[in-house]
């Protein structure tokens, strides 16, 4: 659905945000932009000091920024201790998202015993299974499939074309983007007489309040117990979360990450893009994994971890790969040199 | 659809599974759990010896385990040579999945000439194209799209929101999870006068009996001939299988793996999560690829292969990256040391 | 939809393609195949010289190839300066794709104010939002969701089950494969009082003419301005393109690549499979990234770059990982050897 647009005087905007401001209180603000692109009727923000040089030439009507950054700024400023968060609040004011109309679209197919709150919105082409419960103000966008026994919490929003498998429970204000599959079977297989036997997956998925799940992400149901995301977990696009994984509150996971089965991740972790985390590990709170890293061992100390290798010009990289292949031989050569130097083998060896 | 629950006396359960048991034949079993969580009316299993310590404190009504593990166990045990496979069979007994009701949901759109067996189930919001054949007891879950000329084998189950492209053939008992796309065009492009020309992809996809395809996985149609999965191939979530790939029977592929075009993978291979396999390769039978590895060459010997690098604390990893960049210089320094030692260059160089 | 089949005499085919030929002008061609599989009534092609040995035994009715390759060939040949591109044109002749019938399927749900050209095709189970514009001959396949304010260009084809989010603009002849999500929210989060606040994403997505987007790929809407693909960008399956990314014309991106937010990629780049490109980078024109590489820095020189490590037998790889862990110690040992050799520290150090 499209967002509306509202106009504020700078003074009103500052009041609505609870922020001090400098400059012309009557400046009219009705749009948003970047430091480079914002017009004189648009707001923008400065959070990353690296962009400070762009301040000199910005035409923006107002800039949300820290008070110290504003000291040398001639334009209008909204003074904020946390400019990026206040920027988010400013956009919410200027572009309020209209509430979806309550009611069930006539093309939706709803099981007789589903309980759908009167204030909920069920979009076109939706299918809702038996025993489903959809709570107040929840929005089920077009073409979603909600399988039997699912519960969708108050004010949750499934944007469209989301699949939620049997028995899953989504908390309040959860946002789920298109293409997401919650509650598909985990990958459980037993080898028997030379072939695979599927191990039925009888757990489900529980997603806490205020989680957000990015497009085409998959979260498998648990094998026996549930796969769990605590509250305020934020997951980007194309992330794979396998069965029995447990993710702590406030953890953020960037695009293309894969988390294998039964791994526990703590609170306030940040997993950068395309990293992989092996199964049955325990990652403690406040761990940062850098991009394209491979986590093969549990981590019990907060901090930053990684194994991503930055790309180089191909010829240099190929030579480096040759060197890697020589390391075994180098180990022998080093030792031989040390012996012939009468140093004997190094005590570090 | 939700699974039902049944209750068994231990003696009955052992009989149904064809297993010997120890303990109280009248113990009533109606649930499943883990060694840690199972209640006295629940079954659990012990397959991985690492979990043996949990046996001492389990409250489970019965544990499926190997006879030698059971020797020192005081609780009820189902004695199995293959506990994980028998565990799967036990769940099938306790939580039988009800057969989907035969028939076509009124909201489904079915081409006039589609042949749908009377025992098949076609769910809500489904679209079935011209010339499609859906065989006995097949289940097409909600919001699936079955394009023209597709054949879905006996007892296959497309859980929901699956896309199957023109002419694809799925075998018997195949299970396809939500979000899967079978038979999209492969990535075939010819450069012509400074722009790309699409090379039409006229092959299709053939998937053998008893395959299982995980959520949001993609399997492209062949460029000329078909992309093929032999029988009992098991594919996890978010796997990308490019055009003309051929995967041998009983091979298992974990989440987030990518397999580039025209590669052949043998039987009984296991590809761990997030690995990538380049195009036009030949991987023989019984190859294991470890997690997050990059396969750039054909493999003609069974065994385990890999190139994943375990993550380390960031400061240590950054220092190691610096060392990597120095290897070329080290090669020169090593040689110079050897020369000055009158050893001459090593014969290994 | 299924493709039709047509039959040509070789002479006619050569005329239609504007190519010279050698061999029997009356040879009847009605199918396509590979050098190995083509029947005597089928065409095939030879573009990669590595496949030249297969020429000797091919039974194909005609082979599209370069004139110099044809000199020693006894069969029928279509002589082409660009065999792979002419092969694409040949398939288009033999397997013309029928135009989709104009009109709106009765099961589609269309907002009252959507403007849909009379020549456009809207398939079964589609949902089209308010203010949408769908231009001449565009095809919206089954189960697509087109959100409010989207514009779909002339002759564009959304194969089926595609999601296009609010306000996105797709150019002429764009092809979008199933499972694609265009215009989901980017991953914008501000930490505030110990929890995440969502930063509303108010940009959209613009996709130029002649782009092709592979199955289950995701392209996020911009945070403030639009995410942009210029014309003739070709994207394979399961690619993640984050908010504010800008991709230049004629760039091709293979499967499973991830591109983080605000990165700019030039024209005529080729990104091989499963590579990751960090955010806020600038990649110049004509850059090639090899498979499974990690791009962490901007690139300002055309050429080939990479950091993928080819898999080795596991025992050898594990030993190499041990060596990697020893490099810090080796640095000390090398220096000590150099000092004891009275060479002093190397000037390269």
How would you sum up this structure, described in words?
The structure is a homotrimer of 349-residue chains. The first copy, chain A, is of the alpha/beta class. The first copy, chain A, has five helices and 40 strands. Chain A has three domains: 8-94, Udp-n-acetylmuramoylalanyl-d-glutamate--2,6- Diaminopimelate Ligase, Chain: A, domain 1; 103-305, UDP N-Acetylglucosamine Acyltransferase, domain 1; 314-349, no CATH class. Chain A is flat, with a radius of gyration of 26 Å. Chains in contact: A-B, A-C, B-C. Chains A and C meet through α3, β40, α4 and α5 of A and β22, β23, β38, β39 and α4 of C. Chains A, B, C: Its EC number is 2.3.1.191.
What is the terminal separation of chain A in angstroms? 65 Å
CA radius of gyration of chain A: 26 Å
Strand order in the largest sheet of chain A: 8-11-14-17-20-25-28-31-34-37-39
User: How many β-strand stretches of chain A?
Assistant: 40
Helix content of chain A: 10-25%
**Overall number of domains of chain A:** 3
Tell me, what is the CATH class of the largest domain in chain A? Mainly Beta
The interface involving the most residues is between:
A-C, 76 and 80 residues
What does the overall shape of chain A look like? flat
């Amino acid at each position: 659905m499209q967002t509306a647009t509202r106009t504020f005087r700078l003074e009103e905007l500052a009041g609505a945000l609870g922020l001090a401001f400098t400059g012309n209180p009557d400046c009219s603000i009705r749009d948003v932009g970047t430091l480079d692109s914002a017009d004189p009727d648009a707001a923008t923000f400065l959070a990353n000091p690296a962009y400070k040089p762009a301040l000199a030439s910005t035409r923006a009507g107002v800039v949300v920024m820290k008070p110290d950054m504003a000291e040398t700024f001639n334009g209008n400023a909204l003074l904020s201790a946390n400019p990026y968060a206040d920027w988010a609040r400013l956009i919410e004011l200027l572009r309020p998202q209209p509430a979806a109309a309550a009611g069930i679209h006539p093309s939706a197919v709803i099981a007789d015993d589903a309980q759908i709150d009167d204030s909920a919105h069920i979009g076109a082409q939706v299918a809702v299974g038996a025993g489903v419960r959809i709570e107040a103000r929840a929005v089920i966008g077009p073409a979603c499939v909600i399988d039997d026994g699912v519960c969708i919490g108050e004010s949750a929003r499934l944007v469209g074309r989301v699949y939620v498998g049997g028995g899953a429970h989504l908390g309040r204000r959860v946002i789920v983007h298109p293409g997401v599959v919650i509650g598909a079977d985990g990958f459980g297989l037993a080898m028997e007489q030379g072939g695979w036997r599927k191990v039925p997956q009888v757990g489900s998925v529980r997603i806490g309040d205020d989680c957000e799940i990015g497009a085409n992400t998959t979260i498998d149901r648990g094998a026996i117990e549930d796969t769990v995301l605590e509250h305020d977990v934020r997951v980007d696009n194309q992330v794979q979360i396998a069965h029995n994984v447990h993710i702590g509150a406030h953890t953020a996971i960037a695009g293309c990450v894969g988390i294998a089965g039964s791994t526990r991740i703590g609170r306030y972790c940040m997993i950068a893009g395309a990293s992989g985390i092996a199964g049955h590990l325990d990652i403690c709170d406040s761990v940062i994994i850098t991009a394209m890293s491979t986590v093969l061992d549990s981590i019990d100390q907060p901090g930053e971890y990684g194994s991503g290798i930055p790309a180089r010009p191909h010829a240099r990289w190929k030579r480096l790969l040759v060197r890697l292949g020589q390391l075994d031989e180098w180990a022998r050569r080093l030792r031989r040199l040390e012996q012939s130097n009468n140093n004997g083998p190094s005590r570090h060896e």
